[in-house]
Each structure stands twice: as structure tokens, then as C-alpha cells.
Amino acid sequence: RIYMDNHATTRVDPRVVDAMLPYFTELYGNPGSVSHSFGSEAMEAVDRARASLAAAVGASPREIIFTSGATESNNLAIRGVTERQRRRGDHLISVVTEHKAVLDPLERLGRRGFEVSLLEVAGAGSPQMGILDPQQVSDAIRDDTVLVSVMLANNEVGAIHPLAEVGRICKEQGVLLHCDATQAVGKMNVNVEALQVDLMSFSSHKLYGPKGVGALYVRRRQPHVRLQSQIDGGGQEGGLRSGTLNVPGIVGFARAVELCLDELPSERARLAALRQRLYDGLRNRVEKLTLNGPVLDPLDFRLPGNLNLSFADVDGEALMMKMRQLAVSSGSACTSANPEPSHVLRALGIDEDLVRASLRFGLGRFNTEEDVDVAIETVATAVERLRRLGQSSQK
Ligand code: PMP
Q1: What is the pLDDT of residues 305-343, one digit of tens each?
Q2: Which residues contact 164 (CB under 8 A, 6 or more apart)?
Q3: Ligand 1, from 182, 200, 213: best to mutate by most atoms within 8 Å of Cβ?
Q4: Number of domains in the chain
């Protein structure tokens, strides 16, 4: 079996597992119980993890709130700001290609009287297909805009938005900026100061850490961001997110980020080369194949491990069923909990048929050249078969 679905989730790195294990077996205290050493040792581990994660993104430790993942972080950021700061206005700005964990909370706010502007991205035919033009943000900001939410890297086509420019515009206009950086952290340099974001969401399981843990960066330097908590109880995380901390998860998350940063430059180059090999191999073997999303070069337009292709005249779902040994995903219906064809590919202006004919490859740390060569052969054979079947059934 070959796993090439690293945008969906990743294998936990064995070095991360090693870092976590003591916090299940020996150091299992509650970090809130600081009156004994079990608790204080757990608290120290959380403090170290918080400092390490903060340093990785240019934040200070008190600006990091641990959560259960990016879905929760996005909800806390968007709902937290709008509930606390409604008097500033009720207009929100985001982008059509955001993840559902941003679009759905926005939609709910829309039903509660907020007005949401969703910006378009560059369409098919552009080398920057899927990328936001920051001028659009500037044009959309109004006196009553409370929050702008723009992801850093897209989970389907890997498009990287010019966030520093968006940050500069928001700062100039005095509007808060949230960024869902789930797919970007660990894959490219991410610095909250350089990007001028006020809130940023992270998730551990996308970067070879455990599932069920993530974080929200909340700016505490001027201007200080005020949020309404969404989960109340014991008052952990400065009252912003109650609940006993997931100590092994947090330790693993921080270790996972450290490993990504240590290996970042070499791993980016390695993944980009693997992706080129995959793309070239498929182009040599398969006719009528199109690239969805930005061009592969330069690397600052697109995540290095991402390749999204459409295979004309083939149904992505059927294609995946023919390749049970190769884990990828498709923009066609029913590949996820969401029965709709990909809203991201549709927003890029890709024909419905080609949306259904799409495959997303997410290359990651554990993929090798050999995996890529097997994947090329597997996909090429399956596409040929399906196309032949399609032709004979039309006769
Ligand atoms: N945002 C983006 C861009 C994502 O890719 C994902 C995961 N698919 C999420 C948010 C949700 O993250 P989590 O699974 O940690 O809740």
C-alpha cells in the first residue's frame, strides 16, 4: 500500500511517538494539579511545548492557546471575535476556497445577521490559479468590517496566498486578520509578525503529529485581540479554552513542529523533486491530463507536496476504486463526509466533469521515488482501463 494523502492526515513520526510515550505511562499528571510533582511535571512539559511552538512561528508563549485541532481553532477565532466585537460592525470577509471549518462558521454567522463577502481567486488559465489577489481584500474592506479570514495554503490545490500583503492591508485599515495556516505550518516558513496576522490556526496531524490537538495564535501585543471563549469550565488556557490539557498530544505536536523546521529546506526540495517526477511520469503515460491550481514553479505559489490533476473522461470516484493500493483523494462526490463535488475546484472555474475527474496527490515525509514510480504506473493503468470501458459502453 502507498499513502499519498498527506493533506488529509499524516503518519505520526516515530520520533514524535517516542516523545509522547512517557506522558501516557509515567508523567500522567494533570497540568492543573500543580500542588504535586505529577502535576507540575506535566505543566512543565506543556510550558516547554508552548514555548517551542511559539518560537517556531515568531509568537510569544502566552499567545498560544491549545485546542483540539484546526476546526476548533477556526471556530474559536471567528466566533470568538464576532461575539466579542460585534459593536465594531457586522461585516466579514473571507475567500471562496477556504476550508469548511472556516466557511461553515461564517455561514452560521450569516444566518445571524452578519454579512459575509467571499472573495474570488484567480481562475483556470492563470499561472496563479487558486491564488487570491490582495487588491480584492483592499476593495472589500468597509467601515463595518470586523474580521478578514484568509488561509495561508489551500488543502486541495496547495495554492499559497500572498498573506503578508493581505496582512499589510488589514493593518493599514485597522481590521483584524485570521489565517488558517493548517496546511502551511511545517511545510514553509510561517511567521506571525512577518504576515501581520492577529489570529492563526494550526493542527498537529497534518505535520506528522497526533490527531486531536492543535493551537490558535492570539495576538497579545498591541493591538491586543479580544475573544469570547467557546468552551467554558475550569478556566484553562487563560479562560479561552477550558478542559484538561491533552499533555501527550501537546508534547507530540511541539516535537512534530520542531522536526519539520529542522528538516524544512531539504524536505521542501525533496518533495518538489518527487512531485515533478510524479507529474512528468503521468504526463508521459496519460493523455488528456490537466493541472488544477497554480503552476509548480516557483515554489512560493504552491505547497511542494501538492499535485492536483484531472483526467478527462474518467470519474475520480471510479478511478479511486480501481486503485485500492494507492491512497489519494478526489474532488468528485462522496470521497469525504461531504457529498458535494469540491467547492474549491468549482471556484477555480473548472468544468464540473473535470472536477469529478480530479485526483489530489499529497506527497509527504515517508514517500520515496519508488512510491512515485508505482503510483505513476497504477494511475496510468487505471485511467487507460476506465477510458477503454467508457468507450466500449458508448458503442
Ligand atoms: N483547515 C484546513 C485548511 C484543513 O486542511 C483542515 C483539515 N482538513 C482543517 C482546517 C481542519 O483541521 P482539523 O482536522 O485539525 O480540525
Answers
A1: 999 999 999 998 899 999 999 999 998 765 456 668 899
A2: 194, 195, 196
A3: 182
A4: 2
pLDDT of residue 334: 54
Which amino acid would we find at residue 339?
A: P
Task: Verify that 248 and 297 share a domain, yes or no.
Answer: no
For 38-72, what is each residue's pLDDT tens digit?
999 999 999 999 999 999 999 999 999 999 999 99
Q: At what angle do helices 247-285 and 369-394 cross, to 10 degrees?
A: 60
pLDDT at 374: 98
Question: What is the pLDDT confidence band of residue 79, given thresholds at 50, 70 and 90?
Answer: very high
Nearest-atom number in ligand 1 for the CA of 7 is: 5
Q: Which of 302, 310, 289, 391 lies closest to 356, judged by CA? A: 310
Residues 238 and 317 in one domain: no
Q: Could you say which of 230, 257, 284 is where a domain stops?
A: 257
Q: Sign of the C-alpha dihedral, residues 207, 158, 185, 84?
A: negative
Residue 149 predicted with pLDDT over 80: yes
Active site residues: 334
- Indicate whether 172 and 39 sit together in one domain: yes
Compute the distance from residue 70 Cα to the ligand 1 centre, in Å. Answer: 5
Any residues with Cβ below 6 Å from ligand 1, and which? 69-71, 99, 101, 151, 155, 180, 182-183, 203, 214
Residue ending a domain, among 257, 284, 318, is 257
At residue 394, the pLDDT reads: 62
**Ligand 1 pocket, mutate which of 155, 199, 200, 202 (most atoms under 8 A from CB):** 155
Look up the CATH number of the domain holding residue 110.
3.40.640.10
- What is the residue range of 305's domain? 2-7+263-387
Cα 107 to Cα 118: distance, rounded to the nearest angstrom: 11
Residues 87, 189 within the same domain: yes
The atom of ligand 1 lying closest to the CA of 73 is: 16
